[in-house]
Amino acid sequence: WGQEVNISIKLDEKAPIISKHIYGHFAEHLGRCIYDGLYVGDTNKIIPNTAGVRNDIIAALKELRIPNLRWPGGCFADTYHWKDGVGPKEERPTIVNRWWGGTTEDNSFGTHDFLNLCEVLGAEPYLSANVGSGTVQELIDWVQYTNHDGKSPMADWRREHGRAQPWKVKYWGVGNETWGCGGNMTAEFYANIYRQYATFMPGWSGETKIVRIASGASEDDYHWTETLMKNVPHHLMEAVALHDYAVFNWEDKGPSLNFDEEVYYKSMEQALKMEEYVTKHVAIMDKYDPDGKVDLFVDEWGGWYDAEPEVKKGVLYQQNTMRDVMIAGTVLNTFNNHARRVKMANLAQMVNVLQAVILTEGEKMIKTPTYHVMNLYKVHQDATLLPTTITNNTAYRGLPSISVSASKSNTEGINISLVNIDANEQIEVVIDLQHISSKKFTAQQLASNNITAHNSFQNPDSVKPMPFKDFKVKGDKLIVNMPKHALVVFNSK
Ligand code: AHR
Q1: Among the atoms of ligand 1, which is closest to the Cα of residue 349?
Q2: CB atoms within 10 A of CB 120
């Protein structure tokens, strides 16, 4: 065994709960995410479905215990007019998806379809509303339509469309990337627009207290976060967003498969920057909101590569490899460790787009390596964070090799998620367990000899969780031989 990395796990009474919403997802009208992806139409007799949504996808998402789902975009959200997506499907107008390939959509998947799907999944819906090309009235009508119990024009319209009870949607995004596709606004201008929208949003939901999410910064745009925190009264804003994709060159993102070690490390360097970005955005939020009233939602994140060559121009679709396992494992560890302020995150995008957990092709559906990360990490949902410190972390190409987070829950016991990003070396990790009473661990791993290993429609289980046994407990120490580019989740009940 090579160099030894040391980790100690603390028990801290004041440690935060890791919100289950960190394990959230994102469904955008983009490529084959919705149409010919999760939604195959309610008249489809070939692919088994529930109200048009594939049953195999519903089962896979239920297994993940997906806590929330953001919809309908992304950039698409600021072109979307929700009223065109309710009522008889054959009467709905079309919409041209101007950001993503110029595809004409028939609006057959709309508000009812999405919110009913969330009910089936047991997931909280997160509606991302149109500010860029919408109006305040359009947004408050949407809140009233989905949430109002009593008699009102929008609640009556909802009833006419067959839904008596309101869905009580809690999470509302006020525009998306308003610095870019959501309107090319300055931070100062958007802060004022936000105040206007947010003023009229509550009041339709009875006891449901809505969460208004301000469109947030990208990567290291700290001025954006600072402006929102300074210029928006905090009683109008429950959360601020942040977007960060693991992209090392926006002009040439490289392929999702067939990349070399050089490119792998560039992706990892970018993925690991999440730690720095979150730390610095949180520091700004702490300065203006020391009591922690406003949450940070990283409502778009993931690896983003060049679309697969066979995909229509302007549309995104990529494969998913062990590199994505490393991205998801390290980024989720960062979110867990920042659970005090990071209360939601949404991996982009759930089906057939960027770092998807599910890919489909006709009747076939596969679970990607990232699906398995989400499945192994679900033990952290709503568990109490166990703060960790890590020393002697091997650095290769200036990047720390080992990433960790730990939690404790009544149902799942102690959970430790460990990632070794090193492309070539196994690493010995010694974890100090002196504060942990139960030391009988079992473990599952995601590993492969090849960093480009992935699941295909021909070989759907090439990457899947396997039992991991290369560890021992000696006194207070858990000694682990972490294989190269591997992820291991330990559990002790
Ligand atoms: O996820 C693809 C796009 O990335 C989203 O539509 C947008 O919000 C972001 O720029």
Answers
A1: 1
A2: 13
Tokens standing for 410?
């009544």
223 and 238 housed in the same domain: yes
Task: Report the pocket of ligand 1 as residue ranges, CB < 6 Å.
Answer: 28, 73-75, 176-177, 300, 348-349, 354
Ligand 1 centre to CA of 383 (Å) is 30
Q: Are 487 and 376 in contact (CB under 8 A)?
A: yes
Whether the predicted pLDDT of 469 surpasses 90: yes
The pLDDT tens digits of the residues spanning 109-161 come to: 999 999 999 999 999 999 999 999 999 999 999 999 999 999 999 999 999 99
pLDDT at 2: 55
CA of 173 to the centre of ligand 1 (A): 14
Q: Per-residue pLDDT for 172 more than 90?
A: yes
Mean pLDDT of the chain: 96
Specify the pLDDT at position 13: 83
Positions annotated as catalytic residues are: 177, 300
DSSP string, 381-445: TTPEEE-EEEES--EETTEESEEEEEEEETTTEEEEEEEE--SS--EEEEEE-TT-S----EEEE
- Count of the separate structural domains present in the chain: 2
Q: ipTM, 2 decimals?
A: 0.99
What is the rounded distance in angstroms from the CA atom of residue 390 to the CA atom of residue 376?
22
- Measured in whole angstroms, the distance separating CA 204 from the mean position of its chain's CA atoms is 28
Residue 15 lies in a domain: no
The answer to whether position 462 is within a domain reads yes
> Do both 351 and 435 map to the same domain?
no
What is the token pair recorded at 135? 């109006």
- To test ligand 1's pocket by mutation, which of 243, 298, 346 has the most ligand atoms within 8 angstroms of CB? 243
Is 242 within the bounds of a domain? yes
- pLDDT score of 1: 45
pTM reported for the whole predicted model:
0.97
Give the residue from 382, 398, 416 where a domain finishes: 382
Confidence band for 22, pLDDT divided at 50, 70 and 90:
very high
Residues 179 and 279 in one domain: yes
Which atom of ligand 1 has the smallest separation from the CA of 26? 1
Distance 74 CA to ligand 1 centre (A): 5
pLDDT per residue over 75-119, tens digit each?
A: 999 999 999 999 999 999 999 999 999 999 999 999 999 999 999
Nearest-atom index, ligand 1, CA of 354: 1
471 alpha carbon – ligand 1 mean position (Å): 41
- Ligand 1, atom 3, lies closest to the CA of 74
250: CB partners within 8 A, 6+ apart: none
**Structural domain ending residue among the three candidates 382, 416, 434:** 382
| Whole-Å CA distances, 351 to 30, 149, 408 | 10, 33, 31
